[in-house]
Automatic annotation (TrEMBL), chains A, B:
Transmembrane segments: 6-24, 31-50, 82-107, 119-138, 150-172, 192-213, 220-237, 273-292, 298-320, 332-351, 357-377, 425-447, 459-480, 514-534, 540-556
Keyword annotations from UniProtKB, A to Z: Membrane, Transmembrane, Transmembrane helix, Transport
Pfam families referenced in this protein's UniProt entry, alphabetically: Na_H_Exchanger
Listed name of the protein: Sodium/hydrogen exchanger
Topology in membrane: Multi-pass membrane protein
Phylogenetic classification of the source organism: Bacteria, Pseudomonadati, Pseudomonadota, Betaproteobacteria, Neisseriales
Any one GO BP annotation for this protein: proton transmembrane transport
One Gene Ontology term, aspect cellular component: membrane
Domain of life: Bacteria
Species, as recorded: Pseudogulbenkiania ferrooxidans 2002
Record flagged with keyword rRNA-binding: no
Coiled coil: none
Membership in a protein family: Belongs to the monovalent cation:proton antiporter 2 (CPA2) transporter (TC 2.A.37) family.
Subcellular location: Membrane
Residues of the Cation/H+ exchanger transmembrane domain: 13-376
Amino acid sequence: MHATSFIHDLAVIMLIAGLVTVLFHRLRQPVVLGYIVAGVIIGPYTPPFALIQDEATVKTLAELGVVFLMFSLGLEFSLKKLASVGVTALLAALTEIVAMVAIGFQIGKYFGWATMDAVFLGAMLAISSTTIIVKALDELGLKNERFAQMIFGILIVEDILAIGMIALLSGIAISGRVEAGAVLSTLGQLSLFMVVALVLGILIVPRLLAYVARFESREVLLVTVLGLCFGFCLLVLQLEYSIALGAFMIGAIMAESRELKQIEHLVEPIRDMFSAIFFVAIGLLLDPAVLLQYAWPIALITVAVVVGKVVTCSLGTFVAGNDGRTSMRVGMGLAQIGEFSFIIAALGLSLKVTSDFLYPVAVAVSALTTLFTPYLIRAAEPFAGLVNRLSPEPVKRGLGYYTAWLQSIQPQEERAELLAIVRRIVLHVLVNLCLVTAIFLAAAYFGPEWLAGHGDARLVNALLWSAALLLSVPFLVAIYRKLKALAMLLAELSVRPEMAGQLTAASRRVIAELIPVGALIGILLFLSALSVSILPPSEVLLVIVLAVGAVAVRFWKRLIQLHSRLQIALYETMNPPAP
Amino acid sequence: MHATSFIHDLAVIMLIAGLVTVLFHRLRQPVVLGYIVAGVIIGPYTPPFALIQDEATVKTLAELGVVFLMFSLGLEFSLKKLASVGVTALLAALTEIVAMVAIGFQIGKYFGWATMDAVFLGAMLAISSTTIIVKALDELGLKNERFAQMIFGILIVEDILAIGMIALLSGIAISGRVEAGAVLSTLGQLSLFMVVALVLGILIVPRLLAYVARFESREVLLVTVLGLCFGFCLLVLQLEYSIALGAFMIGAIMAESRELKQIEHLVEPIRDMFSAIFFVAIGLLLDPAVLLQYAWPIALITVAVVVGKVVTCSLGTFVAGNDGRTSMRVGMGLAQIGEFSFIIAALGLSLKVTSDFLYPVAVAVSALTTLFTPYLIRAAEPFAGLVNRLSPEPVKRGLGYYTAWLQSIQPQEERAELLAIVRRIVLHVLVNLCLVTAIFLAAAYFGPEWLAGHGDARLVNALLWSAALLLSVPFLVAIYRKLKALAMLLAELSVRPEMAGQLTAASRRVIAELIPVGALIGILLFLSALSVSILPPSEVLLVIVLAVGAVAVRFWKRLIQLHSRLQIALYETMNPPAP
């Protein structure tokens, strides 16, 4: 009667998914595999059961699956844990991406494909699939192990680098050459956005959720959570980042809320429903005919992805100082491609620089490597043992030496403590700098648009710039104080009495004053450059800076109080006192 | 990047819904109202915030909301409770539908609309909105009260009658006259389908769920539940019934499962998400311009719906023997129109017999009456008190006499017990008859299609008919035995020794034998008529019936055992032993 093809398709998918989940659970096989096989069976390319009427519908539903999978992943994420695997994640992700792009490019060249096809193939192989890994680790019950946390860290770094890669590829496709400046600027903007969003998010969202939780209505909490999740995704889309990144970030922000357990519980059924759809959809996109036609390239690329990723990720993880077993488990967990490859393939098509076959090949390789993922993860432990037994003694000894050497260059005791203090100060300065930068960028970009027609443009600009500076004062004061502390520390260490003699105290004081003042002037110049579109003439600028400076000096203590209150609020949200 | 308008629209809806749910909860107002207002604000007709890009998307999502709302309603439904409010439900629903169709028709005529417009307007006002009532009662925390159970009963009867109404309207629109036969046939088929689906469903589904629950995976259970839900909806759509009916029925079937609590818990978040979307979508469809243009008819129709439904439903409920307060609460809960009115309006448009303005008018009246629903439900109790105080003494006395008279004609003690036995036997016979009818209908409709080309058509038909009869034997035997018991009871009561004298025993035996045998022959003739398309020639038929009859006699005890095992399984599922 009022049946739409949408409901029909959804019904077919859920029915099949229901059958398959029971069957595969009974056979003790990964359900993800079952979903994909089911997708192939009901898909449009296998004639007897073309049960799906509208492929676009399914793709849309699958995208919702990505949102909920990434959101759930964010909920289970911990900023503290990321910090603890930071070096490993960065090193492994960079090794993997550089190597896989090169391997992909060479394979494309080997098959005599056009240069652009080869470049895009390289990019497609670079990034592993967060959704598939999360699902597989979840099913195998390994999500909370240390190697899994490392994998998540690597995936986050990859996702950030992927955004840069998309900017790079667009640039190459349009201009035909690499635009390093554009890539750096994109990555810089992305990092800035992430820092500001996380800081503001962690200040606001957990408090809002605590307020809503007091109504004690599961429905109100759920709808609020979904509203925040989708609202943030909208913001992220507006800034032209991927919705997957947005869902992940808002999840990570909510992970700092005290209602986390309840939220996870509420979101779980919705995630399970849409992730089933997501994996069935992957199967749906698989065309056996293309598989056959491009069987040889697909096979070679699949092998390259599995071997290449296992080797490069394991290597990166090992070089960062982890033992061989953990490295192997990390590498074997990351050996697949997924949603990001489809995005890259679609980008090439929409820019009209790649051939038509690239998309189905990407889907086929993704499906195949997805099939292998759970088996690879399961096989990692025995395989690591096998490698260990089969490696020749000199190799083992060499690797042992490396690990020992890495241990030996780790800073010890006093020095380690000092390094930790310096690192914390630098982190604080960077976060405050990001906030100030965001304030000026926002004023420069949105201010003139909002206030257009509200009086003389020069006056408006001067007011905007003053407002931005005034808003930034607490953060600038904090930066000044942190830098002064850092400078004093450095002065203490660098100016030794045995060398400076009577000038020791004076030299130290000069250094301790010069560094923060110099840095502050540098920051102000940087901010002026950022906000050049609303920058008042220099004489006006001087008046504004002096006036705001006077305000800063007058309310010095209050500003410090305000900033430390914000800092404490942030700290308390992330480290809740024991109930 | 890969933002679709679908995700965008969903995000806007969820964001607004999240804001509104918190705001209205804070203001202690019904959240449903908030959702509708939010829908109007972001809707396409209020210029400043046309945030929704694709209306079709929203309608599709809203339909998913109907599925999950009806499914949840089914989960909370109990067949036993329906039986306990059966008479009230039937009487109130019939009173309401007949009166509202008449009122609607007269209003259409009053405004000088075309006859067809008036007829469709009548139909639009007939059926109340299940989804809106469920939501409102849930929010007010009244769902488990007796009057709410009566409302649900009335809504189910209405839904069944609505299907018949659609058939009737289609007939009128095409032929220009009322086709009573078609309506009766439609209603008969629908009842048959419901009985068979419920019996088979309650035999199969709870056992399947118990099996799946043993895996102890929340995901597997959820995906199985959703698979069953959507699978059944597909079946129902295939038979051209409404998806709302299907979702409700499979919910009612699962309500007999022992995993009910867990299932409700898993489905709740999904329902909350989609029901928020459903109510926002109602607001989206509201065009203030049409509201203004047709302000007067809309106002009159709204008043007619509220007053008409309150009066007719209260009256029907009171006449069925309930007290005034309960009757008033039932009537005031049912005073709105909803999704069914949109279906009728859409039907008229697609048949090209109604004018364009009817659809927006239906939406406006639905939105307005939906707005009033929670307030009416809340006001029911004080209003009933007010009516009671203001009614003149004679009226009160008259109503009191009626209630007392109704009490007096209720069967007492022995007679009541006897009536209960007879009712149970008749119910058993009817259920078995439905099953047998379904077997023969299935054989006649699907058999020839499936077996086409597998040999001689006459031979295939004869085999099909024999198979159907053989399958029906356990149920036919059960019917025979139940009817015999009934006949013996009747004989005992009707043939008194003081009148029949020495012939008493003989007369009783004749009656006890004649009735079941006669009924069985009647049933066989009825089945032959149903399966006329596969009926073998009469000599073959005779052979088949005699052969199957011989089998029945030969395996009499085994057949009784088989049937009673099925019956016990059904009974135990519906009346689980205390754990």
